[in-house]
Specification:
The structure holds two protein chains of two kinds.
Chain A lengths: L3 E4 L2 E4 L5 E7 L5 E8 L3 E10 L2 E4 L7 E2 L9 E3 L8 E8 L7 E2 L3 E5 L1
Parallel strand pairs in A: 2-11
Antiparallel strand pairs in A: 1-3, 3-8, 4-5, 4-9, 5-6, 7-8, 9-10, 9-11
Chain B lengths: L2 E4 L4 E4 L4 E3 L1 E4 L5 E7 L5 E7 L5 E4 L2 E4 L9 E3 L8 E8 L8 E3 L3 E6 L1
Parallel strand pairs in B: 2-12
Antiparallel strand pairs in B: 1-4, 3-9, 5-6, 5-10, 7-8, 8-9, 10-11, 10-12
Classes of the chains: A mainly beta, B mainly beta.
């Protein structure tokens, strides 16, 4: 089954404690992206990647890092999380620019 | 910059009622337009899309027509079911962006009651 898998689904942690949210896709997609969803704001792109070792900032990259060492994986790293990063996060992948994106089920992060 | 504006919710309807969710956009180039749906506790799923003016996207009884003259892509369904309760997002992907980044509206929650 074609899917985008994120882990964990839920995480409550404290300010400053580094965390990583993993994302993996099994569709051999080149394009991957991270979004955060906040009430009234829709989804905003954090980072994206067009291929292995090719990443770039989206609209709200501050406080986040990503890496793309393998085609299937695109982890999101919060080096020093802060409460304003409390949000619902989605990973997505697609086969190319302007193609529909496939989304994971989301990761709800709470930073205390 | 590009932007998407959609009607605020929640929209509450009775089963079998007609649903319309308004969506308008601004874009630099020639965008592709999408509607995504998010069911409770799940990620977004593509509902339908249109890639050029006057195209009509349709799926699961939902329809939306790409109207370049009014820069709109309104979502409609003639007879909703309780299972259509979800959050609906209008989005665009601008032709000037090689990556095809999605620009989302704020989302509209739809609640269908029996």
């Amino acid at each position: 089954e074609a899917q985008v898998t994120q882990n964990p689904r839920y995480l409550i942690t404290v300010t400053g404690k580094k965390l990583t949210v993993t994302c993996s896709q099994n569709m051999n997609h080149e394009y991957m992206s991270w979004y955060r969803q906040d009430p009234g704001l829709g989804l905003r792109q954090i980072y994206y990647s067009m291929n292995v070792e090719v990443t770039d900032k989206g609209d709200v990259p501050e406080g986040y890092k990503v890496s793309r060492k393998e085609k299937r994986n695109f982890p999101l790293i919060l080096e020093s999380p802060s409460p304003n990063q409390t949000s619902l996060y989605f990973c997505a992948s697609s086969s190319g620019g302007h193609q529909p994106q496939h989304f994971g089920d989301g990761t709800r992060l709470s930073i205390l | 910059g590009d932007s998407v504006t959609q009607m605020e919710g929640p929209v509450t309807l009775s089963e079998e009622a007609f649903l319309t969710i308004n969506c308008t956009y601004t874009a630099t180039g020639y965008p592709s337009l999408f509607w995504y749906v998010q069911y409770p506790g799940e990620g977004l799923q593509l509902l339908l899309k249109a890639t050029k003016a006057d195209d009509k996207g349709s799926n699961k009884g939902f329809e939306a027509t790409y109207r370049k003259e009014t820069t709109s892509f309104h979502l409609e369904k003639g007879s909703v079911q309780v299972s259509d309760s979800a959050v609906y997002f209008c989005a665009l992907s601008d032709s000037t962006d090689s990556w095809g980044k999605l620009q989302f509206g704020a989302g509209t929650q739809v609640v269908v009651t029996p």
